[in-house]
Amino acid sequence: MQFDNLLRERRSVHQYSDEPISESTLGEIFEAATLAPSGYNLQPWEFLALRDDEKKATLREIAYGQDHVEEADTAIVVLGHTDPMTHAETVFDDWLAKDYLPNEEVRDALVENVSEMSEMSASDRRTWTTRSTALAAMTIMYAARDRGVASCPMEGFDADALVDSFDIPGEYEPVMLITLGYPEAEASDIENERKARRPVEEIVHYDEFDPSDETVLAPADD
Ligand SMILES: Cc1cc2nc3c(=O)[nH]c(=O)nc-3n(C[C@H](O)[C@H](O)[C@H](O)COP(=O)(O)O)c2cc1C
Q1: pLDDT single digits (tens) 190-202
Q2: pTM for the whole thing?
């Protein structure tokens, strides 16, 4: 699909059909996520993909009863590792092997930089991992849409309950949930309607930042 069409046609979908997503399609969607950019290419993301009905029912409770978590074919818990060092040595060894880095001293200096980043506060570590992991999440949603699979990103969940119920180690930040499934053919008009967007002139500031003090919602093109 043309990227512009994909961008315009994506919706956050809450009504899913019973049609299953094949393992190969899911595999392609997650393969796309691996291609997302990340700070220093450290790729802090991991995904808990729930397909089992009981597990999705548990997640639905954690997501304050949002039905689409259970109705979707797959509910993804998007996790971000909060320690930048986790994959640093492997990634910089790859850079060195491919001559992106001139020598081992530069490789060691980069490892040292990232090691210092690891001393960040817990709050900064969560911000750090969320930046890259959210880009992987968006990549999943576009890759899914390109294959006719609808999605919905979600922040409405109890992170503490999620960590407890699914035994998520403390180093991981639950960044968001994503539901995935083929959309219900008879979906409601509200589902298909394009939600209004803030216009370009309100959100873009060339050369100087002059914060917007009003919100003008404009009907989007489609
Ligand atoms: C970070 C984030 C959190 C969201 N959380 C929820 C959620 O908990 N439940 C839900 O139904 N939709 C959720 N949404 C979907 C938004 O409501 C939706 O993206 C927005 O209304 C714009 O609609 P559109 O995605 O169809 O363009 C979330 C979206 C984002 C980006």
Answers
A1: 888 889 999 999 9
A2: 0.95
